[in-house]
Amino acid sequence: MSLLLTNGWLVRIEYKGLVFDEPLRFDVLIEDCLLLELKCVQEILPVHKAQLLSYMRLLDIPLGLIINFHEMKLVDGVVRMILPGANA
Known about the structure:
Blueprint: E1 5-6, E2 9-15, E3 18-24, E4 28-30, E5 34-39, H1 46-59, E6 63-68, E7 78-82
Parallel strand pairs: 5-6
Antiparallel strand pairs: 1-4, 2-3, 4-5, 6-7
């Protein structure tokens, strides 16, 4: 069994009548339903959560995880985020 993994997409952004096709660089997208953001920082800040949530909204991904490898115990560095109403 293999999983489909992706680490970047070209995303169409529409804003006030302007259309941009921009590359979106995220860490890992698994099976178009789980987005991983991998960090190695002292602590997870609100900007990290906002980044993940923005990516989830743009890509319509229902579940995201921030994994911080700076923690002594890996489970202490995991933040789970759910996007209600995303295409599951």
